[in-house]
Amino acid sequence: MRLYLLALNPTDSVTEGFLPAADRLGLAVTVLTDQPDAHRTAYRHLAAPPEVLPCEVRDFREVVGLVSRHHAPDAVFSNSDHLQTQTALAAEYFGLPAKDWRAALRAKNKAQLRRHLAAVGLDTVRAVELAPGQPVSGIDPPFPCVVKPREGVASEDVALVADAAELAAHCAAVRQRRPQDALVVEEFLAGELHTLETLGDGTRRHVLGGFRTRISPPPHFVEEALEFVPEHPRPVVDQVLAQLDALGVGLGACHTEFVVQPDGRARIIEVNYRAIGDQCDLMLARLLDIPFFEHVLRVHLGEPLPAELGARTGRHGHNRAVLADRAGTLTAAPAAQEYEKDGVQLVYRPFRTVGEHHVHHRTNRDYLGVVWAVGDDRRAVDGAVEAFLAANRWEITP
């Protein structure tokens, strides 16, 4: 059986998660990407590197054409935020299990997500969509408000602005970097930030738990740490699931970010119709002790999920980012490592290599690496992460 996997840049989710899972399932994998050299380099260490073909994956017509000229597909899949709609359309073209492309579009397009949830009467967030070049002076948002690229990721160019002057300045700065991108200006949804991780086969849906997310101080929204939450309060989960149902989310993994307000109301921040990233999906699989990546691939092959996943309970997980606090060249950092000590499994993965120079983004793009740990004792898990951070050093030279 052949799996076509669509990707932009290489990610740990694919390299460490989905490709090994595909190998365990006996699948032949063809990676379609617009960055073939980067993927071939990323997969050199794998026992069975996949076939990598260059393709304009942002255009579903190019995907359909290439697959039609190559081997017959059994599944078309992507874990990229940017490629869910294209993947859904290509899979549907070949009559394969597919996400509803409308749901994929609603999740990716933050303005459309707001409009749809308001139209079905589930949640109304005051939001304005700004087309490229559209004057900011003509809108009247509630301050403070959040400005974000309509189809952005990784908190990039997202900021909280306090007044009209800050709004104009931030929009102008973003448009210098990405002049062709539409923006969304929306009311600030205050509350503690959480995630809900779900897995569905189109009929049955499992809630895998979620995370409590610590973010950086305003005006930016950088995810600094995530702690596993086995079960959110049932009324909160029901509200989030109702909104996912209204959006049409059903097949595969979904990572939803939301806040809970003092009155218990759950307000969605964004829906990422794929597995959670930045090593959290790998941590989740280890934490729950389930073949998470295999389950995701199986549903895209048309197989139903089991009634019970057999997830391990009573464990704690802690994911912590190591962030650059300035621009410069990374001149010292620990290597990738993994070990178990005193009942705690700890993993560290670098996101930058020593010698790389980067600007300071003030987003998740500033991650130098991620350390995570899982175990039965929360204090031991948290302590292992703190001990690792204290024992290692990351140096940036301007």
How are the elements arranged and paired?
Blueprint lengths: L1 E6 L4 H13 L3 E6 L2 H7 L8 E4 L5 H10 L5 E4 L5 H10 L7 H8 L1 H10 L7 E4 L14 E5 L9 E3 L2 H14 L5 E5 L4 E10 L3 E11 L7 E7 L4 H14 L3 E10 L5 E7 L7 H9 L3 H9 L15 E8 L4 E5 L4 E5 L2 E7 L6 E2 L8 E9 L2 H14 L3 E3 L1
Parallel strand pairs: 1-2, 1-4, 2-3
Antiparallel strand pairs: 5-8, 6-7, 6-8, 9-10, 9-12, 10-11, 11-14, 12-13, 14-19, 15-18, 15-20, 16-17, 17-19
What does this structure look like?
The chain has 11 helices and 20 strands. It is an alpha+beta fold and 398 residues long. It has 3 domains: 2-98, Rossmann fold (3-Layer(aba) Sandwich), CATH 3.40.50; 126-187, ATP-grasp fold, A domain (Dna Ligase, domain 1), CATH 3.30.1490; 192-397, D-amino Acid Aminotransferase, Chain A, domain 1 (2-Layer Sandwich), CATH 3.30.470.20. The longest helix has 14 residues, at 164-177. The termini are far apart.
What key attributes describe this structure?
398 residues; alpha+beta; Rossmann fold; Dna Ligase, domain 1; D-amino Acid Aminotransferase, Chain A, domain 1; 3 domains; nine-stranded antiparallel sheet; four-stranded parallel sheet; 20 strands; globular
User: How would you classify the helix and strand content by structural class?
Assistant: alpha+beta
What are the low-pLDDT stretches, counting only 5+ consecutive residues below 50? none
CATH evolutionary superfamily of the largest domain: ATP-grasp fold, B domain
Q: Averaging pLDDT over every residue, what do you get? A: 96
Q: What does the overall shape look like?
A: globular
- Proper CATH architecture of the largest domain: 2-Layer Sandwich
**Alpha-carbon Rg, integer:** 21 Å
How many strands, what sense, and barrel or not for the largest sheet?
9 strands, antiparallel
Beta fraction? 25-35%
Total tally of structural domains:
3
